[in-house]
Amino acid sequence: MEIFISLFFAALAATMAAAEATTTVQSLLDELSTLSNYQPSSILPSRYIHSSYQPTDNPNDYDILADGVVELLQDKELLADLVFRSPPPFKHNTSLAFDLYSELAQEGSTTAHSVLAFLYDTGYNNVVEPHPGLALLHYTFAALSGDAASEMTLGYKHSIGDGAELSCEQAVEWYSRVADAAIDYYLSGPPGGHALPLSKPKLSDLKGGPYGLGASAASTGDNAYRPVIYAGKAKDSGENWHDLIDYFTYAANQGELQYAIRLGNIYYHGSVYTPKLGPADGSGAIPKDFSKAKYWFTRATRKIWQDGLQSDKQKEVSNYTKYLVSIASNALGKMYLRGEGVKLDQSSYQKAYKWFERAHSLQSVEAEYYLGLMYKHGYYVGANQDVAATHFTNAASNGFPEAYVALGNVFLAKGDIVNAIQNYEWAVNLSNSFEGTYRLATLTRDQDCRTSLARFKSVAERGDWLVGDKMWKEASQRWEKAVEWNKDTYGRHEAEAALLTWWRLAEMGYESAQNNVAFILDQDKQRVRLPGYDAPVNQTLAKISLNYWEKSAAQHVLDSNIKAADYHFKGLGTEVDHKKAAELYLSSDSSSLALWNVGWMYEYGLGLPTDLNLAKRYYDLALEVNNQASIPVLLSLIHLYVKSIWQWLSGGGENALLFNFGLKDGMSAREKEERIDSQDAREAVNRVDWMAYEEQGSSSSSGSGQTQEFVDGLLERSNIAGQDDGFQSTTFVIVVVALVAVIWIRNYILERARQRTVDRLTEEISRRAHEQAGHTEQNPQTPAPAPTPTTTPTPTQPSQEGLRHRNYNTHHENDT
User: Fold this and answer.
1) Which end of the chain has less Cβ packing within 10 Å, N or C?
2) Helices in 188-285 by DSSP H: which ranges?
3) CA dihedral 776, 777, 779, 780 (to 10 degrees)
4) List of long-range contacts for 481-487, beta carbons under 8 Å, 24+ apart
5) Are the C-beta atoms of residues 121 and 702 closer than 8 Å to each other?
6) Membrane-crossing residues (predicted)?
């Protein structure tokens, strides 16, 4: 610590002694002042990193910097936070952070206990040996002091039995604390509750899934239409949200009503992807702007009420226009009711009521709900619970989810638990209602522990305004900087900082964060592995990646389940286990990639008995699930039939495909048995709840092991040599390359043949044209015919020869 202080002041003294030091210090101050999202653990940041710092013409920069240094060195928690999270220009120093937090933990710091628990839990950066017992102890100290991150971590660990006792009751206890705080904050907001944070997109989804577009379950079938998939495509093509908003603005200014509505929603929700219900998608996040939202919604309502609130006179419009205008009217009503972009007072409630009345006149169900809300709480109108209940009932009967929540609250206040639960269930089934989920979890806590646990976890993760959402935003922003900056300097530094934040969220149970950690550290990014040419595999990182692929898979993510199977198949981060891989592939039967892998394993007898009939069956199923798998399935079937013919010629038995064409139902006895076993396995997997998941084998530990430069250089992954998959992958590549070469040669030959045909036709046409024009060369042995007297044609009557020549030219041009 003393060395660090000495070096810091020595550097400061050297800077002050330099002739042009003022420029250097000012540059440092400007860079620090850009960290507007920075929030240290305990106290407000000093003036030298505060976003409100504004340079003046004659500031005493040295005094400002000196004050900041003194404040930094006098507050261990601020210093530890800066060293651990390392915003530029600070450097990451896990060892120093560990020492500082160890001292702070002795003083009772909640943040220190939380960070030490994470370091003992994961062994991050090899700063300390992983110690589950000490990790659990520090998490408990922090959680008992009210640290929400530690409470969520303990809830998750007890739910899966990772480093803590597998106990649904204890998991519910910890998660319910976070959920209680989340619902309290939600209800403390404006009418209708605080807006939920944006969803948390995965890095892999922005690439179409771990296996890319079309191959991953994340981007096939109905999943191909998810906003995050569109966002990934737009990002890869170089598009940005400014271009999209510019296009919407142009269309809206041309009178396109739907684009005015979309612009209003984009600025209101803070995302270009805004669903009808629920939080907006984080993959299209932009800054919220209530003034712009109000402007576009107001313009949309002019389609019917040209004078705005000054007159109720309506213009005659189509039903579709009425529907769009009702959306804008409801949005304006909510903004006036909630004080979003407007001053909240009695006049704003009056305007809100009028806009809801207008939307209600256009048959809006949402307006019915908000009118009930105003009568329930007495906003502008007098409080009237009967009128409110009538509005809620009408809105619920037309399928508005939050109206069911309101009715559930009415029944709950009367002590009618049965009807309250029924209404909450309807709300959750319709839209996964935030408040409805919490009410159900609370009311059914003693009846169904596991279901209540899943609901409390959902509420804690979705309503994470105070902790998780801030951490996620920080990680996302730093990852974006890593993409923009030079990978050798700040780029890698920011990538590692983002990884650290996602890693902490992963330990808290966020599936998206677990997926991100696994994806960043993934050691199996090659689609085909070539002996001697593949990048070396870092088995330490592979072990961690497998751990989080499995945790993500336990939360019902199909692609993660397949990635875990790949790791067991190839021996990445664990021993090679083809049988385990086959079990995981069979439990992923809604993925064409998993089905193809099962077929391949049946074909070669790896982890499953050799059976060409079952191999063909699974190849066919892969094509049925996803028709984009046609090329690999075709190649596999060709190879399979060639192998079957060879077995038949060499005296192979009933396993050959040729001997099973005549089966009555198309399946052999073994195939029937395997089909039954597969169905039983899928049913067993579906019965297992993710919260009862217990990790087994070498991947159960989340520790990092002893590898030098664990974080530094993690993006290079070059510490340990990888394994070769051998002859099979090389053969497959050769077959694919040969097929492509054959297709190219065939196309080239056909093109040359077509060109020769065209040349011959052109030559023949030219010859005939010359003959018809009288330009054919005379045979010297044949006397020329005697000239025939002709009449000189008049200008208005062309000669017959000219007519023939012109007609030919006309036909020739038409043919061309």
Assistant:
1) C
2) 227-236, 241-253, 257-269
3) 150
4) 487/715
5) yes
6) 726-745
Q: What count of other Cβ atoms lies within 10 Å of the Cβ of residue 233?
A: 15
Enter the tokens of residue 426.
């309807």
Q: Is 192:338 a contact under the CB 8 Å cutoff?
A: yes
Q: Are 72 and 46 in contact (CB under 8 A)?
A: yes
CA dihedral 391, 393, 398, 400 (to 10 degrees): 80
Rounded Cα distance between 281 and 170, Å, is 32
Exposure string over 761-783, b if 16+ CB within 10 A, otherwise e: eeeeeeeeeeeeeeeeeeeeeee
**Token pair of 152, please?**
């969520």
252/241 Cα distance (integer angstroms): 16
Interhelix angle for 434-443 vs 417-431, to 10°? 140
Amino acid found at 34: T
Instruction: Evaluate whether 158 touches 167 at the Cβ level (below 8 Å).
Output: yes
Which residue shows structure tokens 């908003």?
245
Q: What does the domain layout of the chain look like in residue ranges?
A: 2-186, 521-725
Measured distance CA(424)–CA(404) in Å, rounded: 6
Query: Count of CB atoms within 10 A of residue 556's CB?
Result: 13
State the chain's mean pLDDT as an integer: 79
CB 559 within 8 A of CB 210: yes
At how many degrees (to 10) do helices 21-33 and 61-74 cross?
50
Q: Which CATH architecture has domain 2-186?
A: Alpha Horseshoe (1.25)
The token duo for 25 is 């210090």
Q: Using CA atoms, how far apart are residues 470 and 37, in angstroms rounded to an integer?
A: 9
Tokens of 746: 């065939």
How many C-beta atoms surround the C-beta of residue 482 within 10 A?
Answer: 21
Q: Name all contacts of 205-210 with Cβ < 8 Å and 24+ positions apart.
A: 205/229, 205/232, 205/283, 206/231, 206/232, 206/235, 206/283, 207/232, 208/232, 208/233, 209/559, 210/519, 210/522, 210/559, 210/560, 210/562, 210/563
Q: Other CB atoms closer than 10 Å to residue 96's CB: what's the count?
A: 17
Cα 407 to Cα 424: distance, rounded to the nearest angstrom? 8
Contacts of residue 686, Cβ cutoff 8 Å, sequence gap at least 6: none
**Cα→Cα distances 351→194, 385, 616, Å:** 21, 21, 67
Token pair listed for 588: 């992923």
| pLDDT bracket for residue 762 (50, 70, 90) | confident
Confidence at 208, pLDDT banded by 50, 70, 90: very high
User: Using CB atoms within 10 A of its CB, is residue 593 exposed (0-12), middle (13-18) or buried (19+)?
Assistant: buried
CA distance 61 to 8: 17
Is 231 within 8 Å of 200 (Cβ atoms)? no
| Distances 126 to 94, 102, 706, 765 between C-alpha atoms, Å | 9, 16, 7, 82
The 10 Å CB-count burial string (b at 16+, else e) for 615-644 is bbbbbebbbebbeebeebbeebbebbeebb
Q: Which residues contact 774 (CB under 8 A, 6 or more apart)?
A: 801
Residue 815 DSSP one-character state: H
pLDDT in tens, 576-589: 999 999 999 999 98
Q: How confident is the model at residue 507 (pLDDT cuts 50, 70, 90)?
A: very high
Q: Could you write out the three-class secondary structure of 626-646? A: CHHHHHHHHHHHHHHHHHHHH
Q: DSSP string covering 63-93, please?
A: HHHHHHHHHHHH-HHHHHHHHHH--TTSPP-
Take residue 116 and report the two structure tokens written for it: 């030490």
Scanning the structure block, which residue is given the tokens 């991100």? 516
Percent of the chain scoring above 90 in pLDDT: 55
The count of other CB atoms within 10 Å of the CB of residue 728 is 12
